[in-house]
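Record type: ASSEMBLY
Status: queued
Input:
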Amino acid sequence: GYEITFSLLNPDPKSHTVDWDIEGAVNRFVKPVLDKLSLVANFSVDSQILYYAVLGVTPRYDKESSSFLLSAHSLPHVINPVEARLGSSAASLYPVLNFLLYVPERSHSPLYIQDKDGAPVSTNAFHSPRWGGIMVYNVEAPASPQTSLPLHVDVDMARVMEVFLAQLRLLFGLSQEEVPPEFLLESPGNEGLADWELDHLLWAHTVENIATVSTTLTSLAQLLDKIGNIVIKDDVASEVYRAVASVQSAVTELSLGHLLAAFQASKEAVTCSERAFFDPSLLHLLYFPDDQKFAIYIPLFLPMAVPILLSLAKIVRETRLRKKEPTKMD
Amino acid sequence: GGMAAAVLLLLLLLAAAGPAPGRADAGRERRDALREELLLSPLPTGDVAATFQFRTRWDADLQRGAVSHYRLFPKALGRLVAALGVRELHLALTQGFWRTRYWGQPPLQAPAGAELWVWFQPTVTDVDKAWKELSNILSGIFCASLNFIDSTNTVIPTASFKPLGLANGTDHHLLRYAVLPREVVCTENLTPWKKLLPCGSKAGLAVLLKAERLFHSSYHSQAVHIRPICRDASCLALSWELRQTLTVVFDFFSSGQGKKDWSLFKMFSRTLTDACPLASQSKVYVDISPKNKEKELLEVSPPPTSVHEAIVQGDRRTYAVYDLLSPSLFNTSRSLNVQLKWKRPQDSSEMPIPTLHAQRYVGGYGLQTGEICTLIYNTHPYRAFPVILLETVPWYLRLYVHTLTIITKGKENKPSYIHYQPAQDRSRPHLLEMLIQLPANSVTKITIQFERALLKWTEYPPDPNHGFYVGSSVLSALVPSVTAMKDMDVEQSPLFTSLFPSSDGSSYFVRLYTEPLLVNLPTPDFSMPYNVICLTCTVVAVCYGSFYNLLTRTFHVEEPSRGGLAKRLANVIRKFRGVPPL
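Status: finished
Output:
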């Protein structure tokens, strides 16, 4: 499953009072997309508003456009300081996708993101794979300098969700396909992604899962070869058998074209193989390597054994000499 | 290009199809509110105590798990409460000990170390599993070693620790209490605590919380309290309240440099510049109550915005109030530095004695047996009142309950309620709860003898250790107050008066903790295995080697040698001396 968190960052609550109807926006825009994707994974959505959360990078002032610019090479440094404020999702183990909406301070308004060529990005947003996306929402300066602070800002959720949903598609690997000019692409409608894109996603995940399972099980087999005296518990063994059976059924279903069944089988295979591989009883260091056993016993027994072996050798030499003597005397 | 067009098209369809909700005032009605408060109280010994309270109240129903959009309430705690079915959560991390005898009764005391007590919802089926998960998650959020809480230090009290928030039906099997006396509090516990505040430490009262001054103090306690409260007077709906409290006592000699005059800058090396923009109320209270019924001894500057009188813990007290949200406060200067000056030196001989205070120590000698003695003092001149004593003793001190004696004024005092649960080795500690009536103006001595157990060799701590800690015992009492207290509205009164729900106006609730104890357990000599190995190896080498040589040596005649190197060297020296050679 995945957890999706929408965060509104307001570094300057004295100047801006920002309101967003996140509940309504989630129900109208995000829920249909997630309902369609529910075949792939479970999703849970929540949101928060963080105050006094600043980006870690100071933007540069550009005189020609009289605005502040964040250059493309400073974008990787933005995420780390913000992540400290986002809070860990302590109550669950699912990976988190963060979508941040940043309203810049009055002293740094307006703020634009520059791409590699130096032109401002049209959506004023960027995303980071496996983490999420950040969008900068600029507030117009008040008409007259005497308006009282704080300014009240109502976020235009349609514009924001447009960008976030596009970023969500990219994070899932659904990029826009180039169609030849004779073909017309049907709009996906309310749900944000077409059936064939969902199928592509299922197929890609199934193949990835099968590859992961084979790598995990191979590593497990190699571990067993390296340490001869590992004890495999019964439940670990049954998980391994289940993983193998699920992988085989997934491959069969894929060849028959039943995508959904193949995906479920591959998901089960991954869960079983991970559970078997990460079982605490398989920890490598729990087992004594043989050379450590030698290192313990040698200092005790070697000093005692050396005189015994030497005298044994002497006895053998003497008996051999005595055996030869009668033949010599004769 | 094309992708953006496709998504734009879909959203235009959505925008046209779905009705736009009325946005005019949907965002303006707030369902959560923040109040912050700082209370400065000079203590009789010349020290000063500062208590910060940050209270976030959220009109939402976290139980049903439907709510997941957070604003002022921190998301980490909200998800924890919803996911694990927590009804009340109280976590306190404390360094130092509150000396009740010299400092008076604290507004909210916590035992040394870490203390966690939680009431779960009745819908939770496996309370122990939820408790274990909760302590592990909190250990991650607050960077404290709360993951050491397990069945050997968790108890289920039956009479103490009644819920402080709304409760319908109290089945005590939903309560868990654990204390870790060894836990140390430092900056890495303060930082995540500050991160939970909506304004962080950038605005409002929290700018004063700088670690280098806070930990240079005699007592430092930070706590988090989550409980459900009534949304309004009719109590038809629930709200959730999160209180974050921090109490710090600055020492007269080390922080005050021997002078009784205190100021915000002297205590925190910071001053206040503004209130948190998200707070609906932000106030500083200074306790200027006259002691000993004389004229005011304490003078505060700058002049306060108002003066508030309240009956707190049975006494009538006066407070100077600085309202950070009132525009007149920052007119003259940009920062607020509250200064406390004494008009006349205070007589140190007239220190007021608190009505209820207690002491605990270990008696006996040697490493086999001992005795835990608790002394409870009731200094009220004519009123008697009952007190509930909760003692949690680890399993390795084997208590003998037949040696329990309670003596008041020379006579035996039988408790009206005793709940004792004996320990099980390595799985459960001792739990002793008693309801004792304290006569007026008396000292009650409670003694119980114990025997120290021998642990398994892996259970001993490393060599340089303090000993084994026994957690503080808890005394809960409704102390009769000198002046009658009126029922106050929680929203209007200062935060430090509404910590504990008051049932009637004639007494106030107090929870005191005694000192933690340190005991030494009989420790075996851990160098013996090494000694045994050395001795055995020596004996084997020497005796075996000699006997073996004697038994198997063969003797044969040896030719006299021409002389080795030593003989030749000796001959050379003899030639020099002119003596005939060997």
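Annotation: The first strand of chain A starts at residue 2 and ends at 10.
Annotation: The mean pLDDT of chain A is 86.
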